[in-house]
Write a structure and sequence with these properties.
This protein is α+β, with helices and mostly antiparallel strands. It is built from 13 helices and seven strands. It folds into three domains: 89 residues; 85 residues; 106 residues, Tetrahydropterin Synthase, Chain A. Helix content is 60%, strand content 19%. Helix 12 packs across helix 13. The longest helix has 58 residues. The two termini are 77 Å apart. The mean pLDDT is 74.
Length: 356
């Protein structure tokens, strides 16, 4: 059995060695071509999605302009038809009607075609004003924009890449890959998913969290070496620190009430019973806790007068405790809302209950 395992290991080593030699012989552009070919469908789909709204907008504009001009022409045609059917046109000399514009054009051609001349002049002036205005707007935006906007950096960012380190701990990194030019950056974008997959599959070895500067530099060199063949200028790695835990400053958002008197209503006997309860309140912020401490007497009176939980029976079991906790939470939130406090009760912890 061990002999077969050794044979299998030897075959695997031969295959891996052959694959490594073939990779060294094959030019890098072939791998880049395969990666580009693999990501081409996704790139085409992305381009279609980006250009689809623009084409739709141009379509709507074209249809709108055509409808507008069609309406104008239709209006002129209708006006001409109305004039041709009018009594004024029937009474006029048709020969004089045709010759009159020609005579006017012979004496004063500009005046004869004054409407056409003015329309052309206004059209040319409008186009010139529009072009100059567009240039002014572009120049103003360029002047007001910060210096960083004028030149785009050839960078490719990978956010929140997670690695397992030190057996069971997690390291989250933001990785910035800086290409040597925008053209090289665009080539990297085509294989961005492959690069991200390779980075996420890396094995990172560190001695502590957070990693030291030397360990960060080692990680950067490891990534730079892994993306071999691409024209990369540098790699920058930053650790993403985790957010505050849910228990951050939790003790400052809690207050306790002792020996508070409550009235219970029992469903089985249809009677009231009196209980004394100690409970602790967890609020959403410290301002709510300050308010409850400053108005402890009013809070006690409110609970004593307004809160009357309904439980199935005695003795109080887990279901009854949950009903009491939920009733206290709802009524205290209602009291805070009526008092104009921005905050709420998140949880009630019952510490002690005794029935009279």
């Amino acid at each position: 059995m061990k002999f077969l395992i050794k044979i299998e290991d030897a075959i695997n080593r031969i295959i891996l060695s052959f694959a490594a030699k073939m990779r060294g012989i094959i030019p890098q552009f072939i791998f880049n071509w395969f990666s580009l070919f693999k990501s081409s469908p996704a790139l085409i789909l992305q381009k279609i999605k980006s250009y689809s709204p623009k084409l739709r907008l141009y379509q709507l504009k074209t249809i709108g302009y055509l409808k507008h001009y069609f309406t104008m022409i239709s209006g002129h045609i209708v006006g001409i038809q109305i004039y041709l059917r009018s009594e004024e046109f029937k009474k006029r000399d048709k020969k004089e009607l045709i010759i009159a514009p020609l005579r006017k054009f012979k004496t004063d051609p500009i005046k004869a075609f004054s409407v056409v001349t003015i329309s052309c002049f206004l059209l040319i002036a409008t186009v010139g004003i529009y072009k100059n205005t567009a240039k002014i707007i572009i120049g103003t935006k360029a002047l007001r924009a910060p210096a960083a906007v004028h030149e785009e950096d050839p960078i490719l960012e990978f956010k929140k890449i997670k690695f397992k380190v030190m057996n069971d701990k997690e390291l989250v990194l933001d990785i910035t890959v800086v290409a040597k030019s925008l053209e090289e950056r665009d080539k990297l974008i085509h294989i961005e998913k492959d690069i991200e997959r390779l980075i996420s599959e890396m094995t990172i070895i560190i001695a502590q969290l957070p990693p030291t500067k030397e360990e960060i530099k080692t990680i950067e060199k490891q990534i730079l070496k892994m993306i071999e063949g691409a024209k990369i200028r540098s790699v920058e790695v930053k650790q993403v620190l985790s957010a505050r835990p849910t228990y951050f400053q939790q003790t400052e958002k809690m207050v306790s009430f002792k020996d508070l008197n409550l009235q219970l209503f029992l469903e089985d006997t249809k009677r009231n019973r009196q209980i004394w309860v100690d409970f602790t309140v967890l609020a959403s912020n410290r301002n709510t806790i300050f308010f409850l401490k400053d108005h402890e007497v009013e809070v006690r009176d409110f609970i004593n007068m307004q809160v009357e939980p309904v439980i199935p029976q005695l003795p109080i079991e887990e279901e009854g405790r949950q009903i009491i906790k939920e009733k206290l939470r709802i009524e205290l939130n209602d009291y805070l809302k009526k008092s104009g406090i921005e905050g709420k009760i998140l949880e009630i912890y019952v510490d002690y209950i005794i029935v009279s």
